[in-house]
TrEMBL record:
It comes from the Bacteria. Residues 22-41 bind DNA. PROSITE patterns: HTH_TETR_2. The keyword DNA-binding applies. It comes from Flavobacterium cellulosilyticum. Residues 1-59 form the HTH tetR-type domain. This is TetR/AcrR family transcriptional regulator. The keyword Chaperone does not apply. GO terms for molecular function: DNA binding. Keywords: DNA-binding. It holds the Pfam family TetR_N. SUPFAM superfamilies: Homeodomain-like.
Length: 199
């Protein structure tokens, strides 16, 4: 039951917002009593914290699935962006923005977790792109990774509307890719931008 509550809470928090969803809403959605929820979670903050862990695990499981499909480095980044767009299309407000505004302590824990995971994903992507001849060999990989995740996280934690954040994320990806791409990489970027805009 505990896992079902966390799963349903995560779904509702992402769809309707961390602040607006109440324990009553979750109980009503699951056709259980609020008392049942409080049996497993002493307050809403504990439930939010555990729900963000589930969201994190699900996201990175999907990212790992995308990586395993052996796309080239640039196509891989666009597939990951597409996944985020589809996953959060039912929400109006950026989940990171909501967390930062209403639950700053939980937000700090989420960010520490995400930065570690994202550093690994971004590094592998850049190294792969260099091997494929899509990214320039002389780039400073650590700085490149740092610049990109500062851009992406800054967009999500400071942009309230999710659809605006999605557009900015694609522009940030284009900006990032153009900064490190070879001539071959630019051609692949143009191809991916066209595919993305047609979807």
């Amino acid at each position: 039951m505990k896992e079902k509550i966390i799963s349903k809470a995560a779904e509702l928090f992402l769809k309707l917002g961390f602040k607006s969803v109440t324990m009553d809403d979750i109980a009503c959605e699951m056709c259980i009593s609020k008392k049942t929820i409080y049996k497993y979670f002493c307050n809403k903050e504990v439930l939010i914290e555990q729900a963000t862990v589930i969201v994190h695990e699900n996201l990175h499981q999907i990212i790992n699935t995308i990586i395993s499909k052996k796309y080239n480095a640039i196509a891989e980044n666009f597939e990951i962006r597409k996944m985020f767009k589809e996953m959060f299309q039912s929400t109006d407000t950026s989940p990171l923005y909501q967390l930062k505004k209403h639950y700053p302590e939980i937000y700090e824990k989420v960010m520490l977790r995400e930065l570690n995971e994202c550093h690994t994903v971004f590094k592998l992507n850049v190294e792969k792109g260099v091997e494929e001849g899509l990214y320039r060999k002389e780039i400073n990989i650590e700085n490149c990774i740092k610049f990109y995740y500062i851009l992406i996280f800054s967009i999500n934690e400071n942009t309230m509307e999710k659809n605006v954040a999605v557009q900015l994320e694609i522009q940030a990806l284009e900006y990032h890719t153009r900064a490190i791409a070879t001539a071959k990489g630019i051609m692949e970027l143009e191809k991916q931008l066209e595919i993305f805009s047609n979807n």
